[in-house]
Each structure stands twice: as structure tokens, then as C-alpha cells.
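User: Can you predict the 3D structure of Catabolite control protein A? Sequence below.
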Amino acid sequence: MEAITIKDIAKALNLSTSTVSRALRNSYEINPETKKLVMEYAERMNYRPNPIALSLKDSKSKSIGVIIPEIANHFFSQLINGIESIAYNLGYHVVIFQSHDSYEREVANTNYLVSRKVDGLLVSLASLTTDLFHFQDLMERGLPIVFLDRVPKEIETHKVVADNFAGAYEATKHLIQSGRKRIAHLTSPIYLSNTTERLAGYKQALEDHQLPFDESYVKYCHYGGKIVSENEAAIQEMLSLPEPPDAIFTASDKLTTGCMAVLQQKKIRIPDEIAIVGFTNIGVADLLNPPLTAVVQPAMDMGQQAVELLIRLIEHPQKNAEFEIRSLKTSLIIRQSSGHS
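Assistant: Sure. Here are the predicted C-alpha cells for Catabolite control protein A:
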């Protein structure tokens, strides 16, 4: 049996489709007798609203916008797999944008996704984002947003992160226990949440093992390892110190591989001259030369938990007085690059 439409009801009752539509929405513009007539006929004919028309009316698109720095990064591609696996099963489509660590790109991506009426956003901040107005404004207007990995302190919402402090602490402690005394730290811009957390873990490990913290051993790469000349300059500065480092703890995928490339170019032997531990999810860490000791984040799980929190916000907006910050454990996988001396 064909499903009955608003047009069919209008024809049968000799009314306009807009009158029938308004009557079914219980609009005050339609007089009570007409409303009753339409309602009773719709009930008798077993009328059901069209789900596509309903989604337009409720302005629920069943889609989620995701803005991440870049897809060609193992951590973020695993994050997306986690997001999509849950979203798909819960009936949501995922629209993915890359900010390429540009603030302007991030704002443009956000505006476009909002114009396409996504139901909510999942965001990992660009490394060059210091102004958060584009997100604060949307949240005040009721758009659900959940942040993951690189999260803003100033915005109250759900956040899903890796335990950056513990990961960095373990990495630094491992280098100290391997006999290293001058451990440098190559990292991203200081205002990113995971930069400050990893720096704090690194400092704490030095302090707990009675090693002095030396600011000249910490290099902040504005572009987070994407620009070869920036990596080269940072490592050259480290190597030119009166007492160059005997180990480097790197804070991300790109910084880790960039650092190894520069050291190999300079014919510096890893780990004999300089040991390396990287914060990285690259799948080929064991194929690098030498195989890389790495702090691995539970990226897939982070993506799954973030999207679950976002869909909860979308579907039950009134039930979310309490926001959660979920911090997931990292793991240290030891290979040759941090070799014991």
C-alpha cells in the first residue's frame, strides 16, 4: 500500500497543501475545525510524515563535522577510523576537513560545516589557533562541539585526550635509565594543550631523577615538524650547544621522523651518539633505521569515545550539565633508537 502524502490529504479534503501542512504541525494560523478535519482524516488514512521532510523541519542532518590538522598523519587517520566506526553504526555521516594547522583554514572549515547544517563538530585544534571565538560563538548558539587531542582550556565541553603528561614522563624516564644525562625536547608551539602537558611530564621526570632542567634543550617548532628547514634549524641549535644533547625526546609524528632525517643527514649515529624516543603512532616505527622507541596514543579509542560524547550531546542536549575530560593511557614501546649505553 502506497504511503499517503500531504498532497493526497489536501486533494481529498479540497484544501491547499500548505493548509494541511500547517494543520498537521498544529499551527495557530489554522482554525480548530479545519485542524480537527485534517487530523482525523490523517489518522484514519494512517498518514506518517516523510523522514526527509522531518529532518529538514527539525534541521537534524544526521551528519557530524570533523576538523583535524591533517589526515596524512597516522595518529589522525586512526582517530578518524574510530570516529567513523561509531558514527556509522549510530546512523551519522562524517564530513572531514583538514586545517593544515592554519587558523584561517580552521575558521573557513567551521563556517562551511555550519552552513551545511551539521548536527555537531569534533575538533582537534590547528597549531596556529590562539583565538577561539569561532567555536565559542557557535557553542553559545547551541551547536554541540567536542574537542579531542589538542583541546582548549577556555571552553567548557567534553574533551578526549591522551595522558600526555604520563607518556612524556615514561619516555624521559626511559632515556634516563638508559644512561642519558642531557636530554633535549623537540616540540610544537607552547600554547597547544598537548605541548604544555608533554613538557610538564619531561620536566617532572628530570626533577625526579635529579637532572637539571635546561631551557636551551627545549626547542618549539612553530609548524610542528612540517617544515624541514625549521626542524634542521632547531636540531642545529641543539648540536651547537656547548654540551650537545645525548638524547632527544620528540613530541609528535612529524617532529620524530623529521629529527631522525636531520640526524642521519648529519651522519650522527642513533642511538650511539644521540638516542631518540618519539611521541608517534606511525605504523612503520619498527621499520625505521634504527627501529624507533615510541609513545603510542590510543587514537582509535579516542575517536570512538569523542564521537559517542558528541552524539550524546546532540541527542540529549538537556542532560549534559556535567562535562567530562577523558584522559586515555599511552604506552611506551621500546626499540633500538633509545639503545642502552
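DSSP finds twelve helices and twelve strands in the chain. The chain has a mean pLDDT of 85.
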